[in-house]
Amino acid sequence: MTAPHRPAAPDPHDFLALDSTLAEEERDIRDTVRDYATRELLPHVAEWFEAGTLPDPRGLAKAFGDLGVFGMHLEGYGCAGASAVAYGLACRELEAVDSGLRSFVSVQGSLAMAAIHKFGSEEQKTAWLPRMAAGEAIGCFGLTEPDSGSDPGSMRTRARRDGADWVLDGTKMWITNGSVADVAVVWAATDDGIRGFLVPTDTPGFQANTIHRKLSLRASITSELVLEGVRLPGDALLPGSAGLGSPLSCLNEARYGIVWGVVGAARACYAAALEYAATREQFGGPIAGFQLTQRKLAEMVLDVNQAGLTALRIGRLKDAGACHHNHVSLGKFGNVAAAQRVARAARSLHGANGITLEYPVMRHMVNLETVATYEGTEEIHALSIGQAVTGVSAFR
Fold first, then answer.
1. Confidence check: pLDDT of 3 > 80
2. Which domains does the chain have, with CATH numbers?
3. Is 127 helix (H, G, I), strand (E, B) or coil?
4. What's this model's pTM, rounded to 2 decimal places?
5. CA-to-CA distance for 171 and 29, rounded, in angstroms?
6. Residue 273 CA to chain centroid, in angstroms?
7. Where is the Acyl-CoA oxidase/dehydrogenase middle domain (predicted)?
8. Cα–Cα distance between 79 and 125 in angstroms, integer?
9. Active-site amino acid positions
10. Do residues 248 and 143 lie in contact, with contact meaning Cβ atoms separated by under 8 Å?
């Protein structure tokens, strides 16, 4: 009688063996982005975070372009046309280093490029998308305003006709990449509803002011956009844009990247905690042997793997054309909360060391405070899920 087969013990860093379900191309993309991020970004990100900036955003954009991650889920115009899961994996590996780096890629590809790809004319697509995919041009996405965050339909930015031209006036706030962008996708109210416009940032009347003194997402450039009498030709309008649904559909693409990205942040915090617990000794032994430490690690590995399962399932739905925006809301709502729990527990396990930049946990912890807010707050996503399960809207 043959001995019964004994399954291999779980890998502490991939407890449910989720990566074994990936296709070869997906694994290749994962490895390529992980190798680059670990080699070129991770050694410097704590310094960038402490300095509160990205020292060479154009160099970073060119490197990301060479890596092929800008707009990698889009088709044509120099974009890779990769699967949703492959794009998610790239977001996961970038955010395992820092949320600000994933935001750089998300804003370029899932917001600015996606808006042009979805709603732009052929001339607009040809003019901008290949350069943006290559990292030769940087874009930003101007929707949020100082008094219009969760309710973008109340925006005050206006675009009015003046002969054949458009004239834009208004202010946008919390705009990633705004101060280094070559083109801004600006959403404005018109007599025909909310429309999108391509605004080259060297247009007279356009000004981008970098926001300083941030305590979160510091390795990222965040800006205020001010438009005062910005005159644009008629063909600056994104002709396919129509109503608030247009920018919200772009936000859904960026939210999808967050669903995956925060798994990377959680994984990094868990891995740091696991290593620290094995090497930190108190009371005559490693703290990994203490019951309370093991409870914390068990809860961390549970959150990391459940969030990974959620991201993978939503990615597979997206690739099958079956992903509703409520699926993405569920993913962002659940996965961000899970990542926050992991980061807080990892910070606690590190003790006083956890508040320094020698370890990644507090950097991730404060970054996740921003991630929980942008692309829809947790309250907005809770209401989105609530509406989906009850059939009743609580937004008004």
1. no
2. 18-133 (1.10.540.10), 139-236 (2.40.110.10), 245-390 (1.20.140.10)
3. helix
4. 0.95
5. 38
6. 24
7. 140-230
8. 11
9. 375
10. no
